[in-house]
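Tokens for Calcium binding. Go.
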Amino acid sequence: MAPKRNAALEAMIEEATVDAYNDDEQLTGLFTMIEENVVVPFTTTALGVEVTVKKLDLTGDSIVAICARGRDRQRIDLLDLPLPTPPPDGSVWIDAYRYWAGR
């Protein structure tokens, strides 16, 4: 069964990837929009503990959240990161990235 279409997210993806010719360029375009629009830091829960998302980073073939708890740091793929309720401002761009990645 094909995923349900979402015109709003598709329009955002089109905006972020308008000049992109391949998946790497599309990923970079989406990362740019996420980096410009998602407000960090924000707090969420990962593996049952509260962590602070300090920044977002592009690592080759994925976008990751740099999470901190005390002095510990961990990269968590943005596709796997649970978002808090309410989500951070600009998180609709994370939704667009997840929609793009699931295509």
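Residues 24 and 45 are 29 Å apart (CA to CA).
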